[in-house]
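Standup notes, structure subgroup. Blocker cleared on the zinc ion input:
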Amino acid sequence: MDRVIIFDTTLRDGEQAPGASLNPAEKLEIAHALSDLGVDIIEAGFPVSSKGELESVKQIARAVKNSVVCSLARAVKEDIDAAAEGIKPAKRGRIHVFLATSKIHMQYKLKKAGDEIMRLAVESVKYARKFCDDLEFSPEDASRSDQAFLFRVVEAVINAGATTVNIPDTVGYAEPQEYGNLIGALKANVPNIDQAIISVHCHNDLGLAVANSLSAIRNGARQVECTINGIGERAGNASMEEIVMSIKTRKDIFSDLETNIKSNQIYKVSRLVSKLTGFVVAPNKAIVGANAFRHESGIHQDGVLKERTTYEIIKPQDVGVFGSGLVLGKHSGRHALNERLKELGFHLSHEQIDKVSVRFKELADKKKNIFDDDLISIVEDEIKLIKPLWRLEGFQVTSGTHISPSAEVKLKYRHKSLSGKSSGDGPVDACFKAIDKVTGVKGELQDYRIEAVTKGKDALGEVILKLKAKGRVVTARGSSTDIIEASVRAYITALNKIESL
Ligand code: KIV
Ligand code: ZN
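Run returned:
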């Protein structure tokens, strides 16, 4: 068996997606989840971009033991120094240097001729190798570069010490056959290509990122750069879950290939990234979308009941989706709850199980059927990464057709109970204004969405909102069978996040 190395760039290229900013604690949690998932290399960030980014890369490098931790640098000393400092605490670290090689980038962005680019590429690789033996070089916009020039650059950087050469389709311009041929041509025309691993990095501007990556693998690439849920710059990067499951599902094509990914953790990690970035996964998204394993039409349902493979090419359990089967109810005990949580991939401390247990019992009193997604939502809501400064004690709203909405919210701050009253444009607005009065922080709501976690009249509602306060913007979620309570919980979580940044 030959292995395709999975290089995850959710924390670097993924985080570059507009509106997807993550705080250091959130990045660390994602890094742990990626490492547990079996990711070979985690690109943790671009350390020269800010002090905070450097610290975050260092924190990940210190904490993650089972994956290589990589940091990105332009082909300049200052960047490489910062990248080297970022990965210094890592058990296994990598520096990733990039420099554009396409005419359009060299002429307009870098304002440098080919000779100068060649010199910088070689010098930067040699310089970075002084800090780290594991060195990746990316000729940015490779797919739009002159091929003869690209091949010369690749040969030169390998001679200079690059151990992985990545061929980015930076603007998602390539087409699968063309991109596969490029990888084939690289193998045929670069004399020392066997001394490095060929990597691919595809963007999704034409919706071809995964197809291009797979075509490259068929032509000899052995590292794929990708992100969870396909998040990333503009239309995003190649989605990890789609690549991994394609390799696993189409054994007839990828017969001698495998990855290290524990596929049954995919759904859990997808939800985590969605929750922390605030990027909702489209229901029809392959592998991890809510509808990916749902069969609506009678003919399909009938087929699946007779023989699952008639309409299902992947077992939902293989990606950690346990369907919407009834899991637990009012009479389920703590042990059953804990077992189910473990099956869903959550390994919680006693204290965390206590918290989840309380919310579970409250929910079971209001809702007869508790589904896996309800449970996941409770866990995500309860197990916060940040120490909550403000906690919800209770609230009361008055609203109706002929009265103006008003609310009273009680919060706990350390050991003190504080309450505030306000009217508003609706009950949710009144609650938010009442919270602002209690906390003395004026929040500006930039986005607000409600989703039903599961089906039915008593479904758990999940509120996802984006809040700006104290010059910071954060995304937060809250869930409850009562959408006003879900909104209040999400708003308080957002405020706590802002206080923690
Ligand atoms: O898309 C791109 O070219 C990149 C490089 C930094 C690899 O993200
Ligand atoms: Zn990219």
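Discussed briefly. The CA atoms of residues 344 and 376 lie 8 Å apart.
Next: hand off to the docking folks.
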